[in-house]
Amino acid sequence: MSAVRSVLAPLRRSALAGRRTFTSSSSRRSESLFVHRDTDYNNPSERDCREPTDPVQIPFEFDAENLKRANEIISRYPPQYKKAAVMPVLDLGQRQNKGWTSISVMNAVAKLLEMPPMRVYEVASFYTMYNREPVAPNFLQLCTTSPCQLGGCGSTKILETIENHLGIHAGQSTKDGKFTLIEVECLGACSNAPMMQVGDEYYEDLTPETTIKILNALAKGEKPQPGPQSGRKTSENSAGLTTLTSKPYGPGEFCLPEFQ
Amino acid sequence: MLRQLAARSLARRSGAAPSGSRLLHSTRPVMADVTLTVDGKEVTVPQGTALIQACEAAGATVPRFCYHDRLAIAGNCRMCLVEVERSPKPVASCAMPAMPGSKVFTNTPLVHKAREGVMEFLLANHPLDCPICDQGGECDLQDQSMRYGSDRTRFHEITGKRAVENKDLGPIVKTSMNRCIQCTRCVRFANDVAGVEDLGTSGRGNDLQIGMYIEKTMDSEMSGNIIDLCPVGALTSKPYAFQARPWELKKTESVDVLDAVGSNIRIDSRGVQVMRIQPKINDEINEEWINDKTRYAYDGLRYQRLTTPLVREGDKFVPATWEHALETIRIGYQNSGAQGDEVKAVAGHLADTESLIALKDLVNRLGSENLTLDQPSGDAPPVTGVDVRSNYLFNTGIENIEDADAVLLIGTNPRHEAAIINARFRKSFLQRGAEFALIGEKFDSIFAYDHLGTSAKDVADFLGGKGKGSGKGEFAKVWKEAKKPMIIVGSAVTEGKDGAAVLKAVSQHVLKNEGKFLTSEWNGFSILQRAASRAAAYDIGFTPSPSSASVKPKFVYLLNADEIEPSSIPEDAFVVYQGHHGDLGAQFADVCLPGAAYTEKASTWVNTEGRAQDGRVAVPPPGVSRDDWKIVRALSEVIGNPLPYDNVHQLRDRMWDVSPTLVRYDNLEVPSFEIQKVGLNLLSSLSASTPSSTAFKKPIEDFYRTDPISRASVTMAACSKAFTKKEYTFSDEESGDKQASFA
Ligand code: SF4
Ligand code: FES
Ligand code: FES
């Protein structure tokens, strides 16, 4: 018996060695879609043919005030380069459309600037600050780039705090529709790390406690005081000023009399 | 200058204009020369030449993906890196102008290393599916990775390779976007040449993808060209998917006959089948493009063919031998008792020059002058006359239209009648700032035009300085100031009832402004033909005598005539149809004779410019069908009036006798200035009725179905459904029914 086994053993081994192992890599899909899909909250108002099952149209048009502003922006560029205004005008559209740029917003911009719609789609899908999916009124953009990750208590902690407090993950919105949270790259306020942007305001020097306070205030519809939450002014030394403590001298001081 | 131009174009954007504002990125090259050294070899190139071309001129090949000499420069693939002396980094040679005195090296370790690096990045996200990829064998990435690729990867992305969803661009272009290397050639072609401004890039960085962002077809009659342009297998051909590998194909250079442009093509065949049709470069005609009908109507060559002679017995066709069929014709001819002009020949759109000559000679020998063309009012002598060539040809020359600064289109839709010429119009619209105006039925154009009217009356009014678009109208001003104005009269106009009136008004206008229209280097008066056989038919005088229209024919010979008006064939006449498809013409026939299609015969084609070109045999004609002129020759023998040529050389001698231009291949013979003037004087003294205000009609309603070949083609039927009728059903990615994920 053992003789048989010892004969078979190398056979078995060689059979194993001859077996090829296939490895396949999983596909890496991008985080957000770079194509448009008609949904019941986002679909163009104009279409050649429309099926009865198609979702309802969500049109968009600039209101009178924004149109005026848009025209003012357009007037800053030479008339033949009207399309240069695409970014600010898209932003106007995004603001009017509750903070996100729907396909109809893009189409409206294309029409206003007389450019092929695809040129607008290209811009809107290139820049991450055009939200192509709806966002809640309190749009939390937490910076998680290295300086914010390292500075203060670190953005990882803040992220955890927000996620636990709101019960959502980055990239999601709360059920009550009040908050959307996303992670973003450096917003240029590294000296006050960690920080997040809510709407147009920066909240800096965050700690878990101040973060929750801000969230609670926002949930109640209040607007907490933006800026550093640690009480310091802008990015001054938090331990008090060590330099430039004296009164800065004004123009003309210490100059020859004729220049005073 | 450019600013002015753009401002003008902006101000003039009329309702019919496409959304495209002009691109202002290319200027006319300045022609001074610079000298530089490439790999130790001195070359002199015109100033403004890209370095990559200078290298090419010096005989050094530079690998490339994004650069294409007929498209704008993008400089985004970085494959074309070369070393330039005193430059700290390798230089992208396509995006760098050749500088005088610079020393360039294309074959140094630095260059190799740089290119290998680029290749490694390109391959990092490229699927390894060459065995099932249709581009295999003609893939730039495959070829260049042989030289610059590494045999193993250093990337082990745990998250996997980039995955991009496929786009559905319609019945022609098949996409496999994982393979895309973002060279943007397709985007540049679509925007700059084809005028489809919906194709672009969305997203950014690693996630950049090519597409339309929204679900849309690529609605262009030039879309097939992006398949050729794509350096990898991201865009491949749907009709040709998995049909053949390039190395299996026999390549035959020939001419396209589905419009009158005479695009140069390469017919790729395997055995007796045409597998695909590709463009052949000819700068004077089609550059490097062909339209989708030229490219994809070939599957029509497989269906509905006449492969054997057919003789009508009662109400059905019975296959017959050639002897029997020709004998039946002889008897039919004798019994019909046709005398003189009662013998009528009708030449269709796809009749080649050889058979036209043979048929004309035969009919003339039978004592008839009744040679008509398969077109509206084809049984009357053409208003243009056939005595002066410049009266019915595209005199300006296809290549030269780019120089025109103001173009007046009369009753023509170049997009459908001559898509290749139309693409040149877009080029001059974008790059040279040419202005366009149309009198005729509006069409969906890829350049902006002013619509000045619809009828012959509007033509006379505009040229006479009255009516819309004149006086304060913008185009009138442009027209007056134009240095190289151009008038294009559509073939449908000359066939219509107002033909004479229009030609009269136009020729008078041209003669009045002779200094601008007819100079030593410019001829601004052109007729745009739409059928491949027409120019040749006029050249050899395949036209009826004035009296013959009133004769009721007893014996009718239809040569490829498939647009025929049924009422023009008397019930009791004996009808012979010769052609390659069982299309409309065959239905009236008593005897059908199977001819060869353009891919199956060596024949001469004269394009709308009057340029004779040589069509070559790619595959044998199916069944017992024969070369068309041989059929006519054989018939002449049976009828007892043999034609005096037994082989194609003798026949071409005869063609030389009729008109030497017919056999001076590839040559554009421009008639002299004096002759053109004689021609115009003839036109201006035409006896014409007063121009009516009946609107001109587009002769082509459905671009994809204009002749027996394209009507028999399945691909063209799908295109017609998708683009003409706009009834395309997008394949659903999720259900995955149309394209398997690996395909
Ligand atoms: S699809 Fe082809 S031609 Fe278009 S960008 Fe990708 S690789 Fe280039
Ligand atoms: S890293 Fe967070 S703002 Fe710069
Ligand atoms: S060919 Fe030069 S960068 Fe692509």
From TrEMBL, chain A:
Coiled coil: none annotated. Keywords: 2Fe-2S, Iron, Iron-sulfur, Metal-binding, NAD, Translocase. One of its GO terms (cellular component) is mitochondrial inner membrane. InterPro entries: NuoE-like, NuoE_dom, NuoE_N, Thioredoxin-like_sf. CDD domains: TRX_Fd_NuoE. One of its GO terms (molecular function) is oxidoreductase activity. It holds the Pfam family 2Fe-2S_thioredx. One of its GO terms (biological process) is mitochondrial electron transport, NADH to ubiquinone. Residues 236-246 have a biased composition (Polar residues). It comes from the Eukaryota. Its cofactor is [2Fe-2S] cluster. Residues 221-260 are annotated as: Disordered. Belongs to the complex I 24 kDa subunit family. PANTHER family: NADH DEHYDROGENASE [UBIQUINONE] FLAVOPROTEIN 2, MITOCHONDRIAL, NADH DEHYDROGENASE UBIQUINONE FLAVOPROTEIN 2, MITOCHONDRIAL. This is Ndufv2NADH dehydrogenase flavo protein subunit 2. It comes from Saitozyma podzolica.
TrEMBL record, chain B:
Residues 110-149 form the 4Fe-4S His(Cys)3-ligated-type domain. InterPro entries: 2Fe-2S_ferredoxin-like_sf, 2Fe-2S_ferredoxin-type, Mopterin_OxRdtase, Mopterin_OxRdtase_4Fe-4S_dom, NADH_UbQ_OxRdtase_75kDa_su_CS, NADH_UbQ_OxRdtase_ferredoxin, NADH_UbQ_OxRdtase_Gsu, NADH_UbQ_OxRdtase_Gsu_4Fe4S-bd. Signal peptide: none annotated. GO terms for cellular component: membrane. One of its GO terms (molecular function) is NADH dehydrogenase (ubiquinone) activity. Keywords: 4Fe-4S, Iron, Iron-sulfur, Metal-binding, NAD, Translocase, Ubiquinone. CDD domains: fer2, MopB_Res-Cmplx1_Nad11. The keyword Translocase applies. GO terms for biological process: ATP synthesis coupled electron transport. Residues 32-110 form the 2Fe-2S ferredoxin-type domain. Its cofactor is [2Fe-2S] cluster; [4Fe-4S] cluster. Belongs to the complex I 75 kDa subunit family. This is NADH-ubiquinone oxidoreductase 78 kDa subunit, mitochondrial.
